[in-house]
Specification:
The chain has seven helices and two strands. The chain starts with a helix and ends in a 7-residue tail after the last helix. It is an all-alpha fold. Helix 1 packs parallel to helix 6 (122-146) and helix 3 runs parallel beside helix 5. It has one domain: Four Helix Bundle (Hemerythrin (Met), subunit A), CATH 1.20.120. Strand 1 and strand 2 (116-117) form a beta hairpin.
């Protein structure tokens, strides 16, 4: 069984997917300034998971186009929705290979970059990634409202069944 904090990240991912169900490519690529496009948000979250859980944790890169299209500090873009979901799925599957190994001890460790430990612990990075999903989920819902979508998710989904509180270990 995955660490409880990994379960929370996976729940945030599933809520992000649920909240974007039914959006078209044209809608996902539309920008309401100064907000980003929804397709960019998908690629952006994928780029963070790629950086943390695939590159730093495992030492390789998959789906590299998200780095140029949506990584932190890159210019805004409006990439194709299907491409971003495909990259997101590939990256999160690769990330899960590492995330499935996390223990309470791992959360206190630091990845190494260029022979030096990164500033944040694995645990802090895991929290940052989870909260990052919630941040962009809210932004995506604002974009959907501006697009005129009705019947959007009103609240966090079925956390009681999908990711209830449980103690680690």
């Amino acid at each position: 069984m995955a660490h409880p904090l990994v379960e929370q990240l996976r729940f945030a991912r599933s809520e992000f997917q649920r909240s974007l169900a039914g959006i078209s490519d044209a809608e996902a690529r539309r920008r309401f300034m100064p907000m980003n496009s929804i397709s960019w948000m998908i690629g952006h979250l994928a780029a963070q998971e790629l950086r943390y859980w695939v590159d730093l944790a495992q030492g390789h890169i998959v789906a590299p186009r998200v780095i140029d299209l949506a990584a932190y500090g890159k210019p805004a873009s409006t990439p194709p929705l299907d491409d971003m979901w495909a990259d997101w799925r590939e990256i999160t599957a690769a990330a899960d290979t590492y995330l499935d190994t996390i223990t309470s001890q791992t959360l206190h460790e630091h990845f190494m970059r260029n022979g030096k430990p990164v500033d944040e612990s694995v645990g802090t990075m895991l929290l940052r990634t989870t909260y990052h999903y919630w941040f962009h989920n809210g932004e995506a819902q604002a974009v959907r409202q501006l697009l005129g979508h009705a019947d959007l998710p009103q609240f966090v989904g079925d956390i009681g069944d999908e990711a209830p509180y449980r103690a680690a270990g």
